C-alpha cells in the first residue's frame, strides 16, 4: 500500500503536543518554548509582543478606571437626586397631611355650622311656640282681669245703683272715680249680660226713698225733678245700669276707668220745664262721665258681650283671619248668623285672640 506525501503528513502525529498534522520539528509549541523575552525573561513571547500586551493592558486599565470614575460620578449624582427626591417626598407628605388636617377642620366646622343651624331652627320654633303661648296666656290673663274688675257682682251693683251713695262722697269725687268705686265694690261672678241677652229691670229695695232733707227744693240736672240732685237720681243711675248691662261702655286698661257715651245716657233732647208762672228754665243734659271720641269706633263695642266666644261682624276689626267651614251663632232675637272665619283683633282694638267673624252681627 502506498501513501501520498500529503496523506502521511495529515495522519502524522506530533510527539510533543500530541497533535496531528505536523511533526515535532514543526510544532508551534516547541517553537514558542524556544522564544525567550529579553525584557521579562519569560518564554513563549518576544519583547515586542510583551510591550504590545503591556500597552493593551494599560489602555484597558485606563478605560476601566475612566468607566469606574464615570460610574462613581453617576452614582454620586443619583445619590444626590435620591436625596433631593426624598426631601421632596417628605415635603409633599407634610403638605398632604396639613391639607388633610385642614379638610378635617373644615369638615368639623361645617358639621358644627349645620348643628348650629339646626339648633337655631329649633330655638326659633320654640320661640314662636312660646310667643303663641304667651299671647294665649296674656289673653286669658286679660280675660280674668276683666272678669274680676268689670263683670263682678250684678246684685251688689244693682243694689248700689238703686240706693245711691253718701252726699259727701258724691261731692268730693270726680265722675270717673265714682263709677270706678261702684264697679270695684261688686262681685258679678259669671255674667251673661250683653250681646244676645236681656237683663231684668232694675229693682229698688222695698221701702227705699230718695234721700231728702238738705236737698229739699233742689232740682236734678238729669231729670229736672225737685228734691234731689243728680248724684241721687234714680233715673240717672238706672240709665247707667242699663248701659252697663248692655256693654255700652269703654274700658281704658291704662287709666283703669270706664267711659259711657253721652248718647247712651241722654237719649232725649233737652227739655224745658216750668217752675211756675212765666219763669222758664232751660236744662241742658250733660254727661257725668268723660267721652272717648274715636273716629274708627262708630258703632257700639261690647268688650265682653257675655257670649261664650268673642265675635264681630266687621272684617276690618280683625287681622290674620282664617276661614272656617260651617258653624252658626244664634243671636238674642233668635236669628242665626254664619261663622265665616276666626282671627285676632287689630292693633288699634283691644287685644283679643280667636275672635269669630260672624255674618250679620251688627255689634262688635
TrEMBL record:
Biological source species: Microthlaspi erraticum
InterPro entries in alphabetical order: PolX-like_BBD, Znf_CCHC, Znf_CCHC_sf
GO molecular function: nucleic acid binding; zinc ion binding
Keywords assigned by UniProt, alphabetized: Coiled coil
Domain (CCHC-type) ranges: 13-29, 36-52, 219-235
Top-level division of the source organism's lineage: Eukaryota
Biological classification of the source: Eukaryota, Viridiplantae, Streptophyta, Embryophyta, Tracheophyta
Coiled-coil segments on the chain, per record: 61-102
Spans annotated as Disordered: 190-212
Protein name (database record): CCHC-type domain-containing protein
Keyword Coiled coil: yes
Amino acid at each position: 500500500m502506498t501513501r501520498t506525501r500529503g496523506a502521511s503528513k495529515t495522519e502524522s502525529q506530533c510527539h510533543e503536543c500530541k497533535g496531528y498534522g505536523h511533526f515535532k520539528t514543526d510544532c508551534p509549541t516547541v517553537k514558542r518554548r524556544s522564544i525567550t523575552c529579553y525584557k521579562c525573561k519569560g518564554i513563549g513571547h518576544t519583547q515586542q509582543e510583551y510591550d504590545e500586551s503591556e500597552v493593551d493592558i494599560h489602555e484597558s486599565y485606563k478605560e476601566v478606571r475612566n468607566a469606574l470614575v464615570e460610574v462613581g460620578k453617576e452614582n454620586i449624582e443619583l445619590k444626590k437626586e435620591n436625596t433631593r427626591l426624598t426631601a421632596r417626598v417628605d415635603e409633599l407628605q407634610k403638605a398632604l397631611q396639613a391639607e388633610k388636617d385642614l379638610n378635617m377642620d373644615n369638615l368639623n366646622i361645617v358639621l358644627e355650622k349645620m348643628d348650629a343651624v339646626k339648633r337655631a331652627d329649633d330655638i326659633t320654633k320654640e320661640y314662636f311656640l312660646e310667643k303663641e303661648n304667651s299671647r294665649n296666656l296674656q289673653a286669658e290673663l286679660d280675660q280674668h282681669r276683666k272678669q274680676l274688675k268689670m263683670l263682678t257682682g250684678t246684685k251688689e251693683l244693682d243694689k248700689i245703683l238703686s240706693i245711691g251713695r253718701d252726699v259727701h262722697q258724691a261731692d268730693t269725687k270726680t265722675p270717673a272715680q265714682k263709677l270706678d268705686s261702684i264697679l270695684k265694690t261688686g262681685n258679678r261672678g259669671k255674667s251673661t249680660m250683653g250681646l244676645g241677652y236681656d237683663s231684668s229691670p232694675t229693682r229698688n229695695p222695698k221701702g227705699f226713698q230718695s234721700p231728702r232733707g238738705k236737698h229739699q227744693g233742689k232740682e236734678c240736672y238729669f231729670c229736672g225733678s225737685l228734691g234731689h240732685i243728680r248724684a241721687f237720681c234714680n233715673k240717672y243711675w238706672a240709665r247707667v245700669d242699663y248701659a252697663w248691662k248692655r256693654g255700652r261702655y269703654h274700658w281704658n286698661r291704662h287709666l283703669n276707668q270706664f267711659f259711657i257715651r253721652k248718647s247712651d245716657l241722654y237719649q232725649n233732647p233737652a227739655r224745658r220745664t216750668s217752675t211756675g208762672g212765666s219763669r222758664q228754665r232751660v236744662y241742658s243734659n250733660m254727661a257725668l262721665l268723660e267721652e272717648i271720641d274715636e273716629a274708627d269706633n262708630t258703632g257700639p263695642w261690647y268688650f265682653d258681650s257675655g257670649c261664650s266666644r268673642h265675635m264681630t261682624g266687621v272684617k276690618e276689626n280683625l287681622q290674620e283671619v282664617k276661614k272656617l267651614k260651617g258653624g252658626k251663632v244664634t243671636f238674642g232675637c233668635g236669628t242665626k248668623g254664619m261663622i265665616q272665619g276666626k282671627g285676632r283683633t287689630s292693633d288699634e282694638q283691644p287685644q283679643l285672640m280667636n275672635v269669630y267673624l260672624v255674618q250679620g252681627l251688627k255689634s262688635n
